[in-house]
Amino acid sequence: MPSKVIKVNTYDEFIIAERQGLKMRNPKDSLDGYEIPDPDVMDYWILNTDKNYVLKNLDNDDFKKKLDSLKVPVNIKLIDVYEY
Prior knowledge:
InterPro entries: DUF3997 (IPR025059). Pfam families: DUF3997. By secondary structure, the protein is mainly beta. The protein has one domain (3-80). The protein has one helix spanning 60-69, and strands at residues 3-11, 14-24, 35-48, 53-58, 79-80. Strands 4-3-2-1-5 form a five-stranded antiparallel sheet, covered by helices on one side. The protein starts with a strand and ends with a strand.
């Protein structure tokens, strides 16, 4: 499923991202390939730049648990990519 990164931030060696799923604007029109945000599809990624690993496709609960276990503040503010 297509998606785009909408929010991001860094903390020590981590890059944290929030992704928004996309869906077809008009799925019944095969000529309309334009995609729009799907408000029901959201996930989170945590990238470790020191150890080169990625935790991906995390739901909100798993995301918070992973942040806690990695000693990243669970209240870290994710910033809109256009403001970052």
